[in-house]
């Protein structure tokens, strides 16, 4: 493991570092808390969780067509009309504004008991779609947690750089005060004061830019966590990197855990089940029906002015496809093409993930080397700055040499923190690709 903690500052810089004290009064947000808040509040995660719930609700035998449909019906029609009826013997019967009514109601059941096993394929397909939704949710969670970790450690490196820039400002301010004192007692030219003031202004500008970047990154992290974007906080001071990851182990995890690869497998299975449903159309469809009905008919004129009836009905229906304009063959061909496409997509996703993994692992190894190199450079630059400032205090070194040591310290610190961040991001990327992103 490669761990980074705050470097020790000599007593000379202790007072110069007090400018960062107000930031320490802010809330300390740990990575675990940031991830927890994200899992609870992130909008994308909530939306995909809802999709999973819908897919789970859809997994039912009724939705697959295995269960009967029962319907209750009611029909009530009324008439008011003038009627005339001539009988065979010549008698004419007439009714003015005669009232008539028809009332029918009942309960009916229709049940498809066989449709070429399409209903069973549909039920399996609904189950696979639920798993697909869960894989998509897992991918979303991985992506958003990866975003949180990356943004969080970006803040960590920026916080370290802020302290370096703050130290540079404090040193430049000390140089300005020292130059003014030397000028007042006649030991330095005014040019030294002006140069020190320019350096102080430059360092202050750099600090303000870094503070702006840090604040904007805070806003970005708050947005991912779906909380008030104006919330201010500070992060931990250390970046710990796992330098023990191996390509073989990660490649094995990709095949077992990567949600994108799982989704590709499930898409292929869904396509196969869809093809089974299409082929089922070649078989007969058999259904049964039954019901109970009541009828009540009243008329103002006729041989029968009132008739009623009630009773049970039942029957069997069967349909056998004979010719569908070659649509069945076309549908089966398209279904087989969909299976082939799903297989190609699986191979494409697998190859893409392996390529991402290989590239990320190379970046990971390179950054581990850079971390060690920049850590050594930063340590040397710090020692050089300590010695230079002591010589400057004694008046045995030029201001140009002081400025060089100062810039070397700031630049080495920025490079070191950036190397730590890049190595951590490479590690996070490897874990995200393998589907095993932990804290």
Automatic annotation (TrEMBL):
Gene3D superfamilies: Outer membrane efflux proteins (OEP). GO terms for cellular component: cell outer membrane; efflux pump complex. It comes from the Bacteria. Keywords: Cell outer membrane, Membrane, Signal, Transmembrane, Transmembrane beta strand, Transport. GO terms for molecular function: efflux transmembrane transporter activity; porin activity. Residues 1-25 form the signal peptide. It is found in: Cell outer membrane. InterPro entries: OMP_efflux, TolC-like. Pfam families: OEP. Its main location: membrane. PANTHER family: OUTER MEMBRANE PROTEIN TOLC (PTHR30026:SF20). Belongs to the outer membrane factor (OMF) (TC 1.B.17) family. This is Transporter. It comes from Rufibacter radiotolerans.
